[in-house]
Amino acid sequence: MSPALPEYPLSATGAWREGDPVGDRKWFELGDGLRLESGAVLPGARLAYETWGELNADGSNAVLVLHALTGDAHVAGPAGPGQPSPGWWDGLVGPGRALDTDRFFVVAPNALGGCQGSTGPSSPAADGRPWGSRFPRITIRDLVNAETGLADALGISTWAAVIGGSMGGMRALEWAATHPGRVDRALLLACSAAASAQQIAWASPQLHAIRADSCWHNGDYYDRPGPGPHAGLGVARRIAQVTYRGAEEFDGRFGRAPQEGEGPNGRFAVESYLDHHAAKLVRRFDAGSYVVLTEAMNAHDVGRGRGGIAEGLRRVTARTVVAGVSSDHLYPLAQQAELAAGIPGAGDLRIIDSSHGHDGFLIETEQVGALIKELLTDADR
User: Fold this and answer.
1) Is residue 174 within 8 Å of residue 320, measured between CB atoms?
2) Which terminus of the chain, N or C, has less C-beta within 10 A?
3) Are 108 and 65 spatial neighbours (Cβ–Cβ below 8 Å)?
């Protein structure tokens, strides 16, 4: 039995559009133009962001939380109008929690290039048409550059801590290396100093799947009638989901079991699981943003233009905790060991014990919360 095709609205791209409910989003306008690492200028850009808690008088209690590839600014809180899904670290933010909002002012921006309110390929350019294929190549440093403008606007000269995993960890590392005087503490989870050949290789078929979709139209599908490249994005998500989870989890959870109710010619249960995650992503995320941000991750290299990775890591002066996930085969522990060894004073690598693979940094909130509490001990004293 073939899987039923999700019933996507014909014009849906997964991107937030003007006029959509705003939820708890706020916006920061980046001004006349954001100069990119390439030398190009991105005009009229803005960032969507959310905050929790209150900034103190001297701006010293602010914590920056940075999301992964398909995440957004909605770190905590329920799903609802303007919020396509519940907060992705909901159990960590709030009074008395690891990110205690009675102590800290927590800020979470939607990444530049994203699709939940920040400027990305689905956003209107100066001519009113979506950027689409005209959206420039951006890097992790460009994302951080945009976020520095937000910090300035909020009156935050130094972050008490910058925290992130995966792509968020790349951004946290770049914050600490590019602006060492503005980051007091850093928590780097399940990330690397530079994208590896294997990570770029895993990304390649995902990008090809999206671009091979007949509805991709070279990235200019936003103002066309009919669906966007949903099929290609769904394939990309299926590939990614395999890399995000561990073999132990797949084998223990699914084995070779058939999908219940589909008969002898139906899917395996694990195939149904991948189809489910593909359908979920297509409903809340945009293929153009997936391409732009995946390419930014591919370009990640803290040593670029700095004399190599070792020199790039030595720029970090923040008190740093580095942690990896025991079963992560996409960002293996050796990559976090390199960070811990290369960042002055980072100490021993911490290991999140989990069978969930790369996604363990999102799922094992109790272990991550303990790392956050350790990092932030006496941070506001």
Assistant:
1) no
2) C
3) yes
Whether 358 sits among the annotated catalytic residues: the reply is yes
Domain 1-381: what homologous superfamily? Alpha/Beta hydrolase fold, catalytic domain (3.40.50.1820)
pTM exceeds 0.90 for this model:
yes
Asked if 161 and 130 count as a contact pair (C-beta separation under 8 A), the reply is: no
Q: Which long-range contacts (CB under 8 A, 24 or more apart) does 56-60 make?
A: 56/105, 56/380, 59/154, 59/155, 59/156, 59/157, 59/158, 60/158, 60/160, 60/380
Amino acid letter, residue 321: V
Of the pLDDT bands very low, low, confident and very high (cuts 50, 70, 90), residue 381 is: low
Report the chain's C-alpha Rg in angstroms: 20
Q: Phi, psi (5° rounding) for residue 179?
A: -130, 65
Catalytic residue among 74, 300, 356, 358: 358
Q: How many CB atoms lie within 10 A of CB 38?
A: 12
Active site includes 102? Answer: no
Coil, helix or strand for 378? Answer: coil
Split at pLDDT 50, 70, 90, the class of 11 is very low
Q: Give CA torsion, residues 164, 168, 174, 176, to 10 deg.
A: -10
If you search the block for the tokens 């790392």, which residue do you land on?
371
Catalytic one among 166, 289, 327, 354?
166
Which candidate in 328, 354, 356, 359 is catalytic?
328
200 near 299, Cβ under 8 Å?
A: no
| Arithmetic mean of pLDDT, 58-64 | 97
Angle formed by the axes of helices 230-244 and 197-212, nearest 10°: 160
Query: CA 336 to CA 338: how far, in whole Å?
Result: 5
160 and 184 Cβ atoms separated by less than 8 Å: yes
